[in-house]
Amino acid sequence: MLSAVGAARQNGYGFGPLLRQWRLARRLSQEALALAGNVSPRHMSFLETGRSRPSREMVLGLAEQLDLPLRDRNELLLAAGFAPAYLARPDDDPQLRVVNETLRGLLAAHDPYPAAVVDSGWNRLIANEGSRILLAGVAPALLTEPVNIMRLTLHPEGMAPRIRNLGEWSQHLLHRLRRQAIGANSAELAALREELAGYPGVEDRPVVVDDPGRRIALPLEYESEHGTLRFLSVTASFGAPSDITLAGMIIEYLYPADDATRDILTGRARTG
C-alpha cells in the first residue's frame, strides 16, 4: 500500500501538501512543528495551504526538525522551487574514493570477525574476509550482485538453516526493518520486509522480552562447519553526512559473544 507521503510524491504535490504529509507521518501537530521550527502556528498553516512560500533556509530547517533522509530533503526543496542541497557523488569522486578506502581499512582491521558495509536498502557494498565463514552452503543465486544482506540472512536457501535462534533473530531484523521503513517512508523497505516475513521459520510478531535484564544483547547463534558461533551485532554510520550515498551507508560489525567463538575465528585465521 502506498503511504501518504508516497502518494504526495507520486501525484506531484507542491511543498505544502508534501510538508503536511511528512508532519503527519511523524505524528506532529502544526503547533509542535511550528514550535520546533521557530515558526508561528499561523505561518505553518499558511505554508501547508500554499498561502505562504518558505525560504530555502526554512525548508532546510523544517526538514531537519522532521528528521528527513537527505534524498527527501531534496524533494522538499524541489517542491518549494529550490535546487537540491544534497548530491550523490560518483564512485570516482576523490572524496568518495577516500571514504571507500577508509571503509575497506576498517573492515580489514576487523578480520577475522565478520563485517560489511551496506546501503540504505541493505545491499552489500563491501565485505571483509571474515564474512566468508557465514556463506558456506548459501545458494549461489543469493550471492549474485547486488547481494541483499537481509535476504541472504533469512532466506531458506541462505543463512537461515544454520541460524540456531532464527525465530528471535528474525524478529529482531523485521522489527529493525519496520522502523527504518517507517522512518524513511520507504515503499522499497516495506516491500522487502513483507517478503522476508513470508519466509519459513521467520517470526513476524512484536518483540517482547519477559525479562529485559537477562542478557546484555540478543546474540546471533550460527552453526558453522567449525562449530557454533555466537556473535553480537554492532552498527555504525557516518556522523553528519552531507552526501546522499554516504548518508545511507551502514557498517555492520559482528563481534564474538563468547571465548569459544573467538578461539574458532582466530584459530581459523592462523591456519588460513
From TrEMBL:
Transmembrane segments: none annotated. InterPro entries: Cro/C1-type_HTH, Lambda_DNA-bd_dom_sf, MLTR_LBD. It comes from the Bacteria. CDD domains: HTH_XRE. Residues 19-73 form the HTH cro/C1-type domain. Gene3D superfamilies: 3.30.450.180, lambda repressor-like DNA-binding domains. SMART domains: HTH_XRE. PANTHER family: BLL4672 PROTEIN-RELATED, BLL5781 PROTEIN. This is Helix-turn-helix transcriptional regulator.
